[in-house]
Amino acid sequence: MSFDTIVVVDWSGAQSPSPPKPSKDAIWIGVARNGTVEASYHRTRADATESLAALFETERAAGRRVIAGFDFPFAYPKGFAEAVCGASDPLTLWAALAKRIEDAPDNANNRFEVAAALNDLFPGVGPFWGCPVSFDDPRLPPKGTARHGHGLPERRGCESHLKTTQPCWKLYTTGSVGSQALLGIARLHTLRSRFGTDLAVRPFERHEAPITLVELFPSLIAPTVAALSEENEIKDRAQVRVLAGALAALNPAWLDAMTREGDPVEGWILGLGHEEAIALAAHAAFPAEGTDATTSHMTNSDLLPPRLRDDCFAMPQGVAWVPVDEALAKLRAALYPVTGTERIPTAKAAGRVLAAEVTAQRSNPPMPNSAVDGYGFAHAATGEGVQRLPLLAGRAAAGQPYPHAVPPGHAIRILTGAILPEGVDTVVLEEDTATDGTTVAFDGPIKPRANTRKAGEDVAAGESAIPRGKRLRAPELALASALGIAELPVHRPLRVGVLSTGDEIVATPDDPAAPHQIWDANRPMLLALAQGWHCEPVDLGHVGDDASEIEERLNTGAESADVILTSGGASAGDEDHVSALLRSRGTLSSWRIALKPGRPLALAMWNHVPVFGLPGNPVAALVCALVFARPALSLMSGAGWTTPQGFTVPAAFAKRKKPGRREYLRARLTDEGHAEVFASEGSGRISGLSWADGLVELPDEAADIAPGTPVRYIPYASFGLT
Ligand code: AMP
Ligand code: MG
After folding, report:
1. Mean pLDDT score of the chain, rounded to an integer?
2. Top-ranked range on mean pLDDT: pick from 221-230, 334-343, 580-589, 611-620
3. Where in the chain is the domain with CATH 3.40.980.10?
4. Domain topology for 495-627
5. Residue 328 above 50 pLDDT?
6. 518, 543, 612: which to mutate for ligand 1, most atoms within 8 A of CB?
7. What's 674-696 look like in SS3?
8. Higher pLDDT, 354 or 311
9. How confident is the model at residue 161 (pLDDT cuts 50, 70, 90)?
10. How confident is the model at residue 299, as a pLDDT?
11. In 676-699, which positions are buried (b, 16+ CB within 10 angstroms) versus exposed (e)?
12. 618 in ligand 1 pocket by Cβ < 6 Å?
C-alpha cells in the first residue's frame, strides 16, 4: 500500500491562540503531495483540527490515501491505560481522555485539572507533574522531583532508544509533550469518530484505510532538518516540511512496513531504527542547489535502501549451539525488505515481486456472458416439458454483441464468451437442443441462469486481485492482464554479490589448476541459485586468503550489491580470513548452528550490507544457502519469508542419528515414491548434490530410521532450486 498524501503535524499544547504572524511553538502542518511540499500555520488546535478534517475529506473523496503523523505520544507507559479505563488498548484510553478534556476554540483548556484527577487514580504523587504557580492543587506537583509512589514507568519502551524525548508526564514549560498528548489525543479521537473505519491508527489498528495516523518525532532526523532548513526558516516549519518531503520520497513499501512496527500497547515512533533511510530520503527530496536540474522540486526517489542496523545479527554468544529454527527466527527478525520499486510492463513482470496490492479497475468478466455454445432466452418464459422457442435472426458471439433485445418467449443463437443480449438470462447447451433454423426445441425445466457467467464472478471491480509481496508468476500475469492492468509496481531485483575465497581456488576452469589447486565450484553454484531466485547475481570473483584483498572486494560488493554471499574462510581457524576480517571490523556474529552439514554461519554487516559467510565445502555451502540464504533473500526482496514445503514419505534407507543437530541428507525419490539418500555423507561430495533432487530433513532430536519409517523430503524445487 502506498500513500498519496503525507501530512506531518507539529502540535502544540498552548493555552491561548498563537500570534497572528507565523511563529514558533505553534501548530504547523506540512503536506507533501504530487511532488510538492507546503507548510501551513495554525493559531489554534480547533483550527488545525478542522483543516486536517477538511484535507482528509478531500483526499478521501478523490480516492487518495493519506498518512498523517503527529509529534506527540499516541500511548502511555504500560499500566496507565488499565488504571484509567480498565483496558490496555490505547484507543479505549483515547476515548476516556477525550471525555475528560475540554478544549475551547481559543485554546483555553482544562488539562491541569484532568491531569490532577488522573493522578488521583494512582497511589502516592504523580505520574503527571508541571503546572503554573497559580494552579494550586496538591494532586499535581509543580516539580517532577516531588512525585513518588505512583508506580508507573517514566518512559515507554520505544523512548528508551531516544534520550531526547520528553516524558509524557511533563505538562509545563519547555517541551511539555504531556500537554500536547492530552490535548492532541482528544482531538484525534474526534477525527477517529468522524472517519470511522476509513481511519486506522497504527500500530494499534492493522486494517487498510484511506487515512492512516501515526506518531512521529521530527528530532529523529534533527541534523538533516537543520541542514535542509531555508534561511531564517522557523524551526517548526522546517521540521514538518522536511519530514513530509522525506516520507514522501521514501520507498512506499518501506513506509507502509514502518507503520506496522511497534508495540500494540505502548505504541511506536514511526521510523525508529530507520533514521538513516529517512534522512537519505530527505536529501533526495530536497537536493542541494546545483546537484540536480530540478533542485526546487522534490524527486520521488525510490532508490534508497533502508539501512539494516549494524548489530542486527547479534546473537548472545555462548558455548551452546543454536537450533536451526531459532537461528531462522533470529534472521527473520533482523532483516527487512531493502529493494527499491519501479513500474514495469505487466508482460515483463514474471519473477518480480509486487510492491503494492493490485486492485481490479474493472470486473472480470466485465459483462454477463455465455459459458457455452447454445441458445439464449429469458428463463421466466420457459417451463417444464418440451420447450419450443422461435429463433431470432442473427447471433451473439464473443466480440460481436447482438445489438437488439430478445423478447420473452424467443431465443437467439449464442456462442461461448458472447455478452448476454438484453432479455437473455439463461442459455441451453447446443447438444441438448434440436433446431430447424427457425425454432429451437429442448426439454424443460432449465435452471435459471444456466450456462451463464455473472459479471465480476471472477473478480469484481475494486476488489483486491493480487496482494503486495506476491512473487509474480504466469498465473498472476494472466490475472493482471485480464483486469486490464498494463503496468505493475514491482520491487527492483535484489542484487546478490557472490565472492569465493581461498588460496587453493582457481577462479575458472578456463585456467589450468596445479595439483594443489581446485576449481571454484561454489561461485557458479551460488550465482545460479541467485538467478533462479529471481535475484540479480553480481559476480564478485575470487580472492585469495588475504585480508586486504577480501576487504577491498567486500567494499566493491557493498557498492554493487544489496547482500553478499561469501564462501570459504568462515570458520574460526588460522586460515579463516573472512571471519577474521569481519570480526576485526566489529560486526561479525558467528552463529554456531546445530546443523549438519554446515559449520558456523558467519553473519555480518559490511558498509550496511549484510554478508552471509557460507562454509567452503560445496555441500555445506549449498545446504546453508538453501536453508538460510533462501528465506533471508526472499524477505529482503520484498516477497516475505519463505518456508520450504516438504512431504512425508517412507524412507528407503536406514540410519541411526544422534540428538543435538538437525541433518540434511542429499536425497531423491525412488520409483515407488520412497526417499533414498546418497551413499556418502561426505561434505566434499559435489556429485551427490547433482545425484539428488532434494534433501531429507532429519529432526534435531535422535532418530532411528529403518526402511519404511516416515521422513520429511524437501524437493529442490521447494527451495526455489530448479
Ligand atoms: P574453508 O571453509 O575455507 O575451510 O573450506 C572448506 C573446504 O571447502 C576446503 O576443502 C576448500 O578447499 C573447499 N572450498 C572452499 N571454497 C571452495 C570453492 N569455491 N569451490 C570448491 N571448494 C571450495
Ligand atoms: Mg579456505
Report:
1. 90
2. 611-620
3. 495-627
4. Molybdenum Cofactor Biosythetic Enzyme; Chain A (3.40.980)
5. yes
6. 518
7. CEEECCCCCCCCHHHHHHCCEEE
8. 354
9. low
10. 36
11. bbbeebebebeebbeebebbbbbe
12. yes
More confident residue, 263 or 95: 95
Regarding the beta carbon of 245 and ligand 1, being less than 6 Å apart is answered no
Extract the C-alpha cell encoding 35: 511532488
- Which one of the ligands is nearest to 570 CA? 1
Query: Per-residue pLDDT averaged across 575-586, rounded?
Result: 83
Residue 608 has a pLDDT of: 80
402 phi/psi in degrees, rounded to 5: -80, 125
Q: Which of 149-158, 161-170, 184-193, 253-262 has the highest mean pLDDT?
A: 184-193
Give residue 613 CA to ligand 2 midpoint distance, Å.
12
Q: What is the pLDDT of residue 255?
A: 87
Residue 613 CA: which ligand is closest?
1
- At the top level of CATH, which class does the domain 369-453 belong to? mainly beta
**What pLDDT sits at residue 160?**
72
Give yes or no for residue 293 having a pLDDT over 60.
no
Spacing, Cα 580 to ligand 2 middle (Å): 12
Residue 624 · residue 613 · CB < 8 Å = no
Q: Is the CB of 505 under 6 A from ligand 1?
A: yes
**Does residue 518's CB lie within 6 angstroms of at least one atom of ligand 1?**
yes
Q: Please tell me the number of the ligand nearest to residue 683's CA.
A: 1
Is the CB of 652 within 6 Å of ligand 1? no
Query: Residue 544 C-alpha to ligand 2 middle, in angstroms?
Result: 9
Q: Residue 291 above 70 pLDDT?
A: no
CA 616 to centroid of ligand 1, rounded, Å: 4
Contact 716, 658 (CB under 8 A): no
* Predicted pLDDT at 611: 93
Binding site membership of 87 for ligand 1 (Cβ less than 6 Å): no
Which of 42, 37, 57 lies closest to 11, judged by CA?
A: 42
Instruction: Pick from 498, 501, 503, 505 the residue to mutate for probing ligand 1's pocket: most ligand atoms within 8 Å of its CB.
Output: 505
Looking at residue 320, its pLDDT comes to 62
Domain with CATH 2.40.340.10 in the chain: 647-719
Question: Which of the listed CATH numbers 2.40.340.10, 2.60.40.2470, 3.40.50.1110, 3.30.70.20 matches domain 647-719?
Answer: 2.40.340.10
Neighbours of 487 (CB within 10 A): 14
Phi, psi of 220 (to 5 degrees): -50, -35
Nearest CA to ligand 1 atom 10: 617
For residue 346, what is the DSSP state? G
Can you give the length of the chain in residues?
Answer: 722
